[in-house]
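Assess this today:

___
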Amino acid sequence: MAVIGLGLIGGSMALAARNSGQVAEVVAADRRQEELELGVELGVIDRGESLQQAVAGADLVVIAVPVRATREVLAQIRPYLEPGALLTDVGSTKSSFVEAVTEVFGTLPATVIPGHPIAGSEKNGVAAANAQLFADHKVILTPAGNTDQALLARLTALWQAFGATVLTMTVSHHDEVLAATSHLPHLIAFSLVDTLAGENQNMEIFRYAAGGFRDFTRIAASDPVMWHDIFLSNREAVLRVIDHFTEDLELLRQAIDHQDGATLLRVFSRARAARNHFTKMLSGQAYVTDMSQKPVRFRLQPGGSITGDIRVPGDKSISHRSIMLGALADGITEVQGFLEGEDSLATLQAFRDMGVTIEGPDNGQVRIYGVGIDGLQAPRGPLYLGNSGTAMRLFAGLLAAQTFDSELTGDASLSKRPMGRVADPLRAMGAVIDTAEGGRPPLKIRGGCKLAGIHYDMPVASAQVKSCLLLAGLYAEGMTSVTEPAPTRDHTERMLTGFGYHVHRDGATASVVGGGRLAGGKIDVPADISSAAFFLVAASIAPDSDLTLRHVGMNPTRTGVINILRLMGADIEVLNEREIGGEPVADLRVRSASLKGIDIPEDQVPLAIDEFPVLFIAATFAEGRTVLRGAEELRVKESDRIQVMADGLAAVGVETTVTPDGIIIDGGQAMAGGLVDSHGDHRIAMSFAVASLRASGPIEVTDCANVATSFPGFVELASSSGIRISAEEG
């Protein structure tokens, strides 16, 4: 391995390579002979040589010189590079490196892979070399379409050996992202310190500067030559982000000048939320989404009983809709019991990105300053909705008639889910929506389209499709009506009514007429029955269990899980029934019971569509056969829930028969321990946590990070109730 340039990054990479055992020898070249000698003395490198000698024979060459010196170095080493040698760099701008390589080589060879470690220090030189500099940091590689994949895998493995997380993106996107997140902050820090240093009272200013000032301006101590090169090399991207920032800064200046507190509050609350959820803010690109989640696995010990008096988090469906309708309402909407899971927070953030001022969430409390039905503003970029299919389908309806273009994106799991069943009827209303291959995200929605009301007979019962079209109907000319083949959740209809918007219901058909207004108010979000379902099954199957669940939403379109469990013989008592904000709620007491297998009535399937993974666990421990039919929608959820559950059950020794629209489970089979892949589906992961109560050995469930999307605090609540669970990262 040859390292050209023994600054902080080059020296740290050389030392990390030596310590990793991944390379046979580390040779360095540097214009400063004393740095090479010190590098050998400190054990950072094996030997120092001239450029020609360092490169000759090396199968990996790392360019670690100032950005504007790259072309000259490349021209000097080109004659001595070994055929097939991997050439990479560590610079902060990638376009300039690719341009320099192309100028020198006449093309971008397949053996060249630009790189950028997101790590650094105010110190410099080989004496500052730190083998741990890259540990728990990101390294961005920007391979081209012709990149040698074997070399890419090798370079990735090397960085991973240094403790780094390796991400990939295009060259142009890298430079745009870094201009906003690194280059602009450095420029502001340099400028602010320079400005204040020129003030008459500069000594007083710096003497009394608080910690925040010192933290922010710390980066002004960075190498001026390096940043001079970076700004000039990434000129276009930096200028764009400077212009954008300058415009926004002028808006804040005007708000202060005119005592415009509403604008200040909107910007500050949006910025606070963006900071708290920074990893979700760049439209779902790998650079940010991969930063947000480390792999999580559940480790579960067998046995236990379920006891206690608990309240599960707020209903996700109602939380989504409370933000959506509150944002579109006139006046202020106050929400209690809001689910602070990633899906709901993604919805909240999307409305902030469209100019809605939202305070919170703070222990489930949210205050929304509605902008009115026609008050949304164009977002600056794509709206990232994480793992939430509900949010994407409902947003498609809301955005189809806005005056501005919009784009909806999500994580890797959401990007595989079909969106044609909302895009197609929206197109029939006059919307212009482009999707990726197979009708999958991202959804690109053209602004300025006039929608006309339609009648739509849903081929498959889906509350999300129904809600999408009703929300689009708020903006459409005339009446929009949707007929469902079987009852589905009616949270949207109930909440629209609560916001003062008339919804006409006639049997299986719901209708709205466009052109109305919504009025803000108060919403109390009940506990999510889908989250309660895990504990209903857990207490039913585990011996000596007695559990009370408080304030559970009992919407009749959602109680299929209770109906099915009762048909199976579960001991579930409904207590303290009441209605809050148009939604029925109750407390539930559930005790151990001997369950029996049943043919699940097809009219109950839409009423329990999200709860079937854990109902499969109940069926496993029931006496006799359980048969599910008419549940083909389960195949297009966060995963193919029928097949993934069947595979998971097989992994712990339980045989099932999968059918195109359901599954057959013969109860009474012994469940062993084993390794279960949840495929990133939160409900699969939590279902096997419940299964551990009756397993004969430990169960390990992988890919569980998405549990936070619907049930924050699940591990803690499950553990306190009696499930022997622990979660581990990595």
